[in-house]
Write a structure and sequence with these properties.
There is one protein chain. About 55% of the residues lie in helices and about 0% in strands. Helix 4 packs across helix 6, helix 5 crosses helix 7 and helix 6 crosses helix 7. It has about 260 residues and is mainly α. It is rod-shaped.
Length: about 260
């Protein structure tokens, strides 16, 4: 007598593919019956399951490859310099461009050339205007500065009377008291006892009208504005050439210069 059949749970539970307790290849397992699938169908299911698994794996591999490619595009900040439009331009491509761009006719070229000429000439005129304006402005600033300095110094300058007082004392220190009238008259004619008097023609400068004015520097660095410095220089000049102011005045009356 054959052994009694055990419950399906004794063989580990029902077959996941709907087979009986003996397994799909057991001869005791009926090919068909209630709750049973044909053995051919079970093979089809296994084949489909295997194909699905392979397909899913293939899609995963392809996705990983695409991800690698996409991530590579973000290396170094995700930006790559675009290729130049002329990169790898072949000779044929260049000939094509030359052919597609028809030659410009002479009239159109002349129009462009004339426009460029006018632009250049206008630019040169503008540069010249700006240079002239800069010169005028510089001259105006220099003139204004000179006038302001003149006004400033005029407030500081001693009067002609003060300068004469200096001259009289310094002339006496030289021992030339008797020649004071000659010196007074001489420098009245020369400069009016103005320490800033300047002859526009000759450039003679100061109370004694030194020529050039820079000669006064031998008496002191303040020769441009100091009356005593100028008087000292003038008395030295008179002594060297005319011995005293009396002789200088005599010479002046005969020649209108000394």
């Amino acid at each position: 007598m054959p052994p009694p059949r055990t419950a399906p749970e004794a063989h580990g539970g029902p077959d996941p593919y709907g087979s009986g307790p003996y397994g799909p290849d057991d001869p005791r397992e009926p090919a068909e019956g209630p709750g049973r699938s044909p053995r051919g169908k079970r093979r089809v299911r296994r084949a489909l399951t295997s194909n699905v698994t392979i397909t899913v794996a293939a899609i995963g591999v392809l996705g990983a490859a695409l991800t690698v490619v996409d991530l590579g595009s973000f290396v170094d900040g995700g930006t790559k310099p675009p290729k130049a439009a002329s990169a790898g331009l072949s000779t044929n491509d260049m000939l094509t461009k030359l052919t597609s761009a028809s030659d410009m006719d002479k009239v159109a070229a002349d129009v462009i050339a004339n426009a460029k000429k006018r632009a250049y000439e206008e630019h040169q005129r503008e540069l010249k205007r700006l240079k002239e304006k800069a010169k005028r402005d510089a001259a105006a600033r220099a003139k204004l500065k000179a006038e302001q300095e003149k006004e400033r110094l005029a407030k500081l300058n001693p009067s002609a009377g003060q300068n004469k007082a200096y001259g009289k004392k310094m002339n006496a220190l030289k021992g030339w008291d008797r020649c004071w009238p000659s010196l007074l008259t001489l420098w009245n004619h020369e400069s009016g006892w103005n320490e800033r008097a300047e002859n526009p023609g000759s450039g003679a400068y100061g109370i004694p009208q030194a020529l050039p004015g820079s000669k006064l520097a031998s008496a002191g660095a303040d020769w441009r504005t100091s009356s005593p410095t100028q008087i000292a220089w003038g008395l030295g000049y008179i002594k060297a050439r005319y011995k005293d102011p009396c002789g200088a005045w005599d010479w002046w009356q005969a020649h209108n210069w000394y």
